Amino acid sequence: MHPVYFYILHTRNRQEKARLACQITNKAWHQGYRIYIHTDSLARAQRFDVMLWTFKEESFLPHDIYPNVPHSLAPIRIGYTPQVCDGMDVLINLTETVPPFFEQFKRIVEIVDDTPFARETGRGRYRFYRERGLELRVHNINR
User: Fold this and answer.
1) Where does the pLDDT of residue 69 fall: very low under 50, low under 70, confident under 90, or very high at 90 and above?
2) What is the pLDDT of residues 88-97, one digit of tens each?
3) How far apart are CA 132 and CA 65, in angstroms?
């Protein structure tokens, strides 16, 4: 049973979701995991790519955008298509839907920000995972 971590983000700052995703990525990578960050467009993948370079001055997170660099060995991949690269351990889902490939990951991270739409779609994803018997863990984050 794969755990799904829901981070409920209570903030008015729109950049906090991406910042929290960077922090989770940083922690998971330092724990030895290979991370796939799923976005819903190339433009968002590119914005997150920039964020990984700049969110912390002293950090370096080896990453690239998939499938733009299809044969990369980077331990952190940012994707935006229904395809996913193999060999990744952690899925960080930055979209409002459950990706069709969610089952291939050892851990799943869902970040739900503090807007009515995000809360509603987050509840739908929570129900989806619960109906499939996955272990759910919820963390409230106040910023």
Assistant:
1) confident
2) 999 999 999 9
3) 30
Separation between Cα atoms, residue 69 and residue 64, nearest integer Å? 7
Q: All domains of the chain, ordered by start, with CATH?
A: 3-108+119-142 (3.40.50.10110)
Is 80 exceeded by the pLDDT of residue 1?
A: no
Q: Residue 70 has what pLDDT?
A: 79
CB 78 within 8 A of CB 95: no
Here the tokens at position 143 are 């910023």
- Residue in 122, 103, 123, 119 with CA at minimum distance from that of residue 36: 103
- For the chain, the straight-line distance linking the first and the last C-alpha, in angstroms and rounded, comes to 31
Helix (H) or strand (E) holding 112: strand 107-112
Closest C-alpha to 42, from 68, 72, 74: 68
Dihedral over Cα of 114, 120, 126, 130: its sign: positive
Residue type, 128: F
Q: Which residues contact 30 (CB under 8 A, 6 or more apart)?
A: none
Return the residue matching tokens 């351990």.
Answer: 89
